[in-house]
Amino acid sequence: MSRLMSPLLASIAAAALMLALNPHAAAAGLSLQVGDFHAADWSVLQITDDGPADANMVIDANLGNPGSHWVISYVTPSSPGLSSSMNRLGAFYTALAYDPAQSGALQRLEFSADVRGLSSSFAFDTLGSIRPALMQNGVTYTVVGSDLVTGKAMIQPDYLSQQWSFAAVAADWVPPVAGSAQRPDFSAGALPIYVGFRYTLGTSCNSVNGCTGGSAFLSLDNFSATLTPMAAPVPEPSTWMLLMAGLGLTLLRRRQA
Q: In this structure, are residues 141 and 191 in contact, taking their beta carbons and an 8 Å threshold?
């Protein structure tokens, strides 16, 4: 019996030592890189749709960086008088989520995307702004001030690569309802968190005689998101020494038996 137990205890000791040397091995977060977009993997939400303008997102199979890419459009019709519009769209990757019930509390969020302008007929410069976005329990969240504001200078063949990095501070992530105290839950055991991006553009006609319509088009490609969980507590060296000593003593007693 002692000859069978010795290798077993030695294996347990080795496993404990490996865990001590690599305490992050069991941590599972979310690492998402999407360069080839499929509509079945995404959910597009109209977050705000006020006024006569129309905003839309579609996946186009050609002319991306390379291959398929998101085409974001904003079109406003001619106005006979004073008018204003505000549109906010969200696209969320729903085929995979960060699950705090499995991965534990969230520590950090990192995003990236390639963006370029396609066209604009507006007199003003901006084609809209892009922010990373989250969706949890059907509510969308973004970080105020994290906008990539696009302009006509981006209407060119080359994409601009943009990165965002955030500590997982729930208070920083706000819903689209102004003044709302609702925040996401980044704690262990919370509901799944889906990642994506949000597009925003607002326009207005300030002439009582009306304004001509216009349109703007953007391309977004190579979206990525990395959500990192809190590291598991690392036992003190003395704890591992006691564990190893205990295993060694047990092994010695087995041999003597």
A: no
Domain ranges of the chain: 30-229
Cα–Cα distance, 121 to 104 (Å, whole number): 47
- Burial of 71 (C-beta count, 10 Å sphere; 0-12/13-18/19+): middle
Cα–Cα distance for residue pair 154/118, rounded to 1 Å: 8
β strands within 99-213, DSSP E: 106-120, 128-136, 139-143, 148-150, 160-167, 173-174, 193-205
pLDDT tens, residue by residue, 32-68: 999 999 999 999 999 999 999 999 999 999 889 888 9
State which CATH number among 2.60.120, 1.10.10, 3.40.50, 2.60.40 fits the domain covering 30-229: 2.60.120
Rounded Cα distance, 150 and 201, in Å = 10
Query: Which has the closest alpha carbon to 69: 221, 174, 171, 190?
Result: 221
Pinpoint the alpha helices (H) of the chain: 2-21, 100-103, 237-256
Give the alpha-carbon dihedral of 185, 188, 194, 199, to 10 degrees. 40
Rounded to two decimals, the pTM is 0.81
Rounded Cα distance between 216 and 204, Å, is 15
CB 157 within 8 A of CB 119: no
Q: How far apart are CA 33 and CA 196, in angstroms?
A: 11
What letter represents residue 3's amino acid? R
Please report, for residues 59, 110, 180, the alpha-carbon distance to residue 215 in angstroms, rounded to integers and kept in the order given. 18, 31, 32
Q: Which residues pair with 219 in a beta bridge?
A: 71, 116
